[in-house]
Amino acid sequence: MNKEKNLTENVASKIDKETLKSVSEVPSFWKVIKNEFRVDKLATICLIMLVIIFTTVIVGSFVLDQDEVMKISLRNKYKEPGKEFILGADIGGRSIAGQLLIGGRNSILIGFAVTILTSIIGVVMGLIVGFYGGKVDNIIMRICDFISILPTTMLIITFVVVIPKYTMWHFIFIMTIFYWVGMTRLVRSKALSENRRDYINASRIMGTSDLKIMFTGILPNISSIIIVNLILGFAGNMGIETGLSFLGFGLPPATPSLGTLVSYARTPGAMTSKLWLWLPASLLILVMMLCINYVGQAIKRASDAKQRLG
Amino acid sequence: MWKTILRRVLLMIPQIIILSIIVFILGQMMPGDPFTGLITPDMDPLVIAELREKAGLNDPLPVQYKNWITKILTKGDFGLSYTYKMPVATLIGSRAINTLWLSLLTLVLTYLIAIPLGMYAGRYNNSAFDKGVIIYNFVSYAIPQFILALILLAIFGYKLGWFPTTGSVEIGVQKGTFAYFLSKLHYMILPAITAAVLRTTGTIQYLRNEVIDAKTQDYVKTARSKGVPIDKVYSHHIFRNSLLPIAAFFGFTITGLLGGAVFIETIFSYSGMGELFISSITSRDYSVMNTLVLLFGVLTLFGSLLSDVIMTIVDPRIRIE
Questions:
Q1: H-run or E-run covering B86
Q2: What is the ipTM of this complex?
């Protein structure tokens, strides 16, 4: 009898402690993301697929020698997929599989570089104009307005044509010029609303330096939104790069890109009878886009308590 | 309201000026000039130098810019296209009609797809249909335009042969006849569907959320308790209210269409302005290319102005200001 009572009391107090803990504890962003992925199995699958694709592409492209892959051998012109070439060969007898790995790496790297650069500019600019407001804010925002009304695609193409001795770095630079605006706007609007909160006022009164408030006060509080935007921006930037390379105005001609591979679809007869030329690259882009966006959506839900599944 | 619009219009003037300066500078950076094409072994270099001097190519840049912009503003003279040997304005005019028709059909298709999908998904939210729409929405958002275009082209153009794969009208069809119109439509459908699918995402999302929101609003409850049939509540009350944000997006939809024209028209070899832009770049036809950049820039500006104006009319919060 006594023993039983003890047991129920024990259990009760244990449950009590646990609920108390779970109620009072604010879960960290990472924990929420973990929960979200646990509930949304598809997001987990997407994440795993992305990891597999990225590792294969990056490791594969390191193992492969780019010059070797890009060497022309006319004997293998339009070789169909088979033993010698897993995914066949292009007009110059170059392995599609090899180009897929190197091109994939280039496209991923460019998407990544542009995302990082635009985000750094966007976060710093957004924080500064959001924090100080006034004249600086006005000027920067007019510049943003101006850039966002420009015919971006056409201007990038024109720049690509105009620049002499054009390289991959030029391309990253040009893209960055046009795409920092989005992040700046986002960070600015978030910083503006954070600015009104009490904790910022308290820091101000305590005499904390502006820089410290911006980067250790505001930034951590808006970081989840920034992370979501980073991921979706990464997909977007890769889409733009592959699209422009597809048209022939992305990466320089000698540098393989997924977009260039897809553009083989436009060589006569390739659309229906030489599927191996363009379909693998198209599918790779498609799968990456869907997965990155899906993972991005899951993290977006995690960052917004109202939308969470887990 | 007029004050906001006026301010917006005034803001456009410096924007257009800066845009024109950028385009001018880009034009200066391009190798060659209109007379480079004339250079042949039996042409005296002195004659070309003279032509250059006469055309004002040796003047200081600000003077050249002034001349260039005055010509555009007063005579609508954008120069000559080298490849087509005709005034740029005439050339672009003939292509602009095609782009215009394609954009119009895309718009119609966009709303034809988006409005019913958004309305029904919102009305029966969490149903199987709604889930399907969410998947459609996600995929159409994530898929890059050129990949979708290629896939549709490969399936419906090449594999099934339902639609032509290049061009904008069948050769030999008499202009102005009904057959001509049908042929045009036939050539436009596939590119228009491609462009429309990608444009539906925002509209569907908005409409769906708007309808879900409206369901709990008082005006809907009032209508229901007055005995208005549920279908009518949706088709009259909710639908009309939900259309406002779509109207506000209209300008952005137009500008988006223009931006996408470069990809869509190139892939489907549809002879519009976007395709002309790419071909003018490949053939280094600089005057055409510059004019197109300027034109698209100005059109984008007007698109965003249009959106702002509609938004001002639609959204009372801005109107009061």
A1: strand B86-87
A2: 0.84
